[in-house]
Amino acid sequence: MFVNRMPRYEILSEDAMATLDRGWRRIVSEIGVEFILPEAVEVFAAAGQKTRDATVWLDPEFVLEQVAKTPREFDLQARNPERSLRVGGDTMAFGSVYGPPFVRDGDVRRDATMADFQNFCRLSQAFPQLDSAGGTICEPNDVPLDSRHLDMVLALQTLTDKPYMGSVTSGPNATDTIAMTEILHGGREAIEATPAVISLINVNSPLRYDDRMLAAMFEYVRAGQPVVITPFLLMGAMSPVSVPATLVQQMAEGLAGVALAQLLRPGCPVVFGSFLSNTDMQSGSPSFGTPESAIGLYCTGQIARHFGLPWRSGGGLTASQTVDAQAAYEAMMTMLPTFLAGANWVMHSAGWLESGLVSCYEKFIVDIEILRMLQEEFTPLEVDEASLAFDAHVEVGQGGHFLGAAHTLERFRDCFYRPLLSSTENFERWNRLGARDATERAGEIWRATLEEYEQPPLDEGIRGELDAYVTRRRAELGD
Q: What superfamily in CATH does domain 2-10+67-377 come from?
């Protein structure tokens, strides 16, 4: 868990915030939000909100009353207590890529498998820059659809000892995740006291929550487990071609979901999510790492703090089809604003490629290097008498050099950032050693990391209980 003590980069004036505030109020009260789950509509109706069929019109002041019940910060426990997290405030937690159906390994692009999912769990465990393996790191297409969520949660629980994200594709899948989390952490009471799984609830933008996501949300919230409520906004497709209009829509959708969570269980942890970028107006394809997405990040951080909500956004996003310069600069164009804006929960921090269609091994390592550099850059500079190195000036004097000075010799091993991936060799040595580019070097690193991986220990009784649950549920599901 990284604590970001640097100042936040905020670009919205008081007038701009007031204009946005009026905008989301009009959407929820005049247009309304659809909830394609009758039980959700019933919850709002019982709270005095206007409803018709699946549409709910919300009183903005009622929404703010519910939002105020959300904790500004909360703890998320890991099975290894040293990996537990504090979400909110100045903390930043990073998880790997989420959701792709495909995998890229070198030049090969193919369907993701369960072996890939397990490999990405191992890589997420190995690098301390990642606080979570995430959830659906890739979609393993070689195991049955009805029961693959069991295998995925089991891998997250056993191959890592970090917090993980739950299955959200249905209410029953969420129920399975909660049951397995109870086994891992000692029962329902233990996970209600301190949450142990966090889950992504996407809005089917514009202005609609679908029934499957809502069913999963109900299960997690009623169990006291945090949800990351995230409008899915690509300007020009799921929102208007305007950053302010998209921010207003994001506020309306996100705050409506937060309000529902608090109606279900007042005080349940909720993360205000943002997935905001734009559509390429020539091709219709999604774009990532754009100036607009960076502006959206800065604004969303300021908006979330205005409402007192922990928030999620950012990551190493790119539209590039391969691990090239575009993949690197677009990832940095998203991850640097993520730090400047101070996002609390950061998905897609390692491995995202091809607009989220691909989990890529080499890109995973590129993103880890970016994370390592930014975490170093956003560590406050210590200025004291020792760091001024006056004695070194006395020793070297005018016109000398500091390579052999005592101050240098005492500190040279760790005085500067040492890259994981980057090459600083001179041309002759670089050429002699094979003239490998960053992608080739990344391939060597992830393979070596998997070879050196050690599985974190887990009590055999707990492991047996988890295996038994998965076996029983797989049979019940017909697999």
A: Trimethylamine methyltransferase-like (3.20.20.480)
